[in-house]
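Recall that a protein's primary structure is simply its ordered list of amino acids. Everything else, from secondary elements to tertiary packing, is in principle encoded there. The following example makes that idea concrete.
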Amino acid sequence: MSASNGQGAKPYRILGIQQIAIGGPDKAALRRLWVDVLGLEVTSNFVSERENVDEDICAIGSGPHKVEVDLMQPLDPEKKPAVHTTPLNHVGLWVDDLPKAVEWMTANGVRFAPGGIRKGAAGYDICFIHPKSNDEFPIAGEGVLIELVQAPEEVVKALGEAGG
């Protein structure tokens, strides 16, 4: 069954953009544009050796309408994942029921990146749709890494009413 053929009701809804993540060799250069020029606020910092990342988490807006802009640089440019080699590293989407979304998408041919559902840098449960499809899972991000983020109840209420 193809996810695009309209068969079967989806047991989840994508509610909106949760984040965009931008990578570069030096996040100071990214901050000059996103913080100094565009005026985003740095709300926190996340460092993970496992994910090879030092990121500043910035924000646009507030409450359920807040969108994160993560400015990322690698801890070691020679290691993977190479967060700096794709300037638009990934896009994060709010989803109202992450486990149901992953189950349905997997059953309908969507390829997920290794790691499964886990706690993300902002404290929400997350997982990633792989950027490349394969024979077993023919649907993927077509070159874009997509993060699915479990929306907290206030986001579900605020964005879910918009008819998502």
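The chain is about 20% helix and 35% strand. Strands lie at 14-23, 41-48, 53-60, 67-73, 88-95, 118-119, 125-129, 145-150.
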